[in-house]
Write a structure and sequence with these properties.
mainly beta; four-stranded antiparallel β-sheet; globular; binds beta-L-arabinofuranose; Carbohydrate-binding protein; carbohydrate metabolism; glycosidase; carbohydrate binding
């Protein structure tokens, strides 16, 4: 009877703990993962790192020209749906910039809205804009809008739709910004404002907001020292002010960036993030990982210890 109980405990432990399978995308580099649950599958919207060559991106820097979407029903077998959007098909993107950085995707009114940052064509301005591409299915193909969202300059878009139907766009430009979106999901309904309550010092980027039991959790990578650690802050309002609670994941000394999203799937919470598992000497070629995430009874999140293989 004791052995049977131990067996049951072990089965439950391993069923609830995703381990021994990182990185989860193994046939290409992938980074900045936004995971979403649509229907009964997990969809993964990462950046797609490639290696720059002379005349093909900036050597020694991030290089991304398209997006793939992956999906899975078990977090182990990932189906690559192929290229769903490319820089060469977006009218406002500078296709010499290879800057299709961290994306997000959200469902509303029968459509899937894919948000992505990229560098503007020089004729349209400088720096990064954030665009929207729309599809009938979560795996695309996504049709880009002709212009980026007016009034937004930055990277790392994240969209959250609250219970009352109000949608919010979060993005980064040194700090983290928030603005309301109109119900068409394509235009701002308010001016972007810096999110209040986050650390004053150190780069903050990669916002990902989710709600649990009436609390809004804003998660973000933060350069508190040399490389990015994952932190979170909470509020009772999606626009803040927020209160920093603590660490989701320690900084790594090997990979300067990290970037996260959090989902609940079949009753278990998961953290998606990245590391340079397949490129130990060059941290701009990254790989997506996932690990189980647990809440304490008081609503705080237990720090996630990364697993690898
Ligand atoms: O992937 C390019 C940039 O690196 C992202 O936009 C940041 O969040 C960081 O992961």
């Amino acid at each position: 009877r004791r052995q049977f109980l131990i067996f049951i405990v072990l089965v439950l432990f391993f069923a609830g703990n995703l381990s021994a399978q990182n990185p989860i995308i193994r046939d290409q580099f992938s980074a900045d993962p936004t995971a979403r649950v649509f229907g009964n599958r997990i969809y993964l919207y990462p950046s797609h790192d490639i290696i720059a060559k002379p005349g093909h991106g900036r050597v020694g820097w991030f290089c991304m020209e398209d997006y793939h979407v992956f999906s899975s029903a078990n977090l182990t077998d990932w189906h690559d749906n192929g290229i769903v959007l490319s820089q060469y098909n977006v009218p406002w993107v500078d296709s010499t910039s290879y800057s299709m950085w961290a994306p997000d995707c959200i469902f509303r009114n029968g459509k899937y809205y894919f948000y992505f940052p990229a560098q503007l064509k020089p004729s349209l301005g400088k720096g990064f804009g954030i665009g929207v591409a729309v599809a009938d299915k979560p795996n695309g193909p996504f049709v880009p809008q002709a212009k980026p969202i007016t009034g937004v300059h930055g990277i790392d878009p994240n969209v959250f739709i609250d219970k009352d139907g109000q949608a919010y766009l979060y993005f980064a430009q040194g700090n983290i910004y928030v603005a309301k979106l109109k119900s068409n999901m394509l235009e701002l309904a308010s001016e972007p404002k810096i999110v209040q309550g986050l650390p004053d010092k150190g780069l903050k980027e990669g916002p990902f907001l989710f709600e649990r039991k009436g609390t809004y959790y804003l998660t973000y990578p933060h350069v508190a020292d040399k490389t990015e650690q994952l932190e979170y802050a909470i509020s009772n309002n999606p626009m803040g002010p927020f209160k920093v609670i603590g660490l989701l994941m320690d900084a790594s000394k090997d990979c300067w960036t990290n970037h996260q999203s959090i989902i609940k799937y079949n009753g278990q919470w998961y953290l998606f993030y990245h590391h340079n598992d397949y490129s130990p000497h060059f941290d701009k070629a990254r790989s997506v990982r996932a690990d189980s995430l647990f809440f304490n009874n008081d609503g705080t999140i237990r720090k996630v210890i990364p697993t690898f293989r």
